[in-house]
Amino acid sequence: MSLLPRPISVARARELEVALATIERAARVTTAVQQKIGDEALEKQDRSPVTVADYAAQAIVCRALGEEFPDDPVIGEEESADLRLPEQTAFVARLEAELAAVGGGTREQILAWIDHGGAKDSAARLWTLDPVDGTKGFLRKEQYAIALALLEEGEVVLGALACPNLPCDGHAGTLLWAVRGAGACARPLGQPSATARVLSVSAQADVRALRLCESVESGHSKHDQSAELVQRLGIQGLPVRLDSQAKYAVVARGDAEVYLRLPTRKDYEEKIWDHAAGALIVREAGGIVTDVDGRSLDFGLGRTLKNNRGVVVTHGPHHEQVLQTLRDVGV
Fold this sequence. Notes:
Fructose-1,6-Bisphosphatase, Chain A, domain 1; seven-stranded mixed β-sheet; 10 helices
């Protein structure tokens, strides 16, 4: 059975198979780490569980990419420099223990896998990875995502998201993917034999019935401006707040019509790994993704979207109306 509604090349199919298999493997480890988070860690604002999950997921993904596509650089969030310090010996031992469930590796192998994700500059072809997107959601045992995308000549050509806590067809998590020009699909996470569902954005035509989602953290998006947009458009429902690129997922599968990430300060530059996979999945599901000025997201400038301000994602019919309303409220 094809993984997408439209045909792709043999080479692209292999890239997609590797991407899906490796983020599912990473999700098994991050889920195990998340399940061990106790109330005491939350009370102390202990970030070590998400740090373990970050490094473990990056090691898993970069190991697979390095073996399958050794010439491809990977731009990820983590690097191993701090882990090489003597005082981090116990932490690295914890990493080794978590990775043992998915094949394991020696201390030096694990650090080398992590560093494979340390590419600094753009290249004609590269992967970008967010090993745990949605740190606070992860710590709250809520939404987070493992996000992997392939870029060629600055264009996102393949995107894959594992959302371990986003339900799908009666299962706990969702796996979503897209290839440029070939559509987008999803199936339950950890259920490789399940039938993939072709993704299509909502067909909602009534602006008042739009469902809007945004970041939980006010530091990630201007909630007051999105609230004013809701009022001006006459949207009747309250915004749904959730962490990570799971917001792209709910728009792509038709569970929401609008996702806003409004600039909180003038000098902030969005990171490419926070948007590459999700943006492609929404576009291939029929939606529209721009910045708040209506410009396409430019992924060809290295690690950040330095030519863009914020992100606006919609199912399509009211995109220009949303952009104009944002201008009216002073975004």
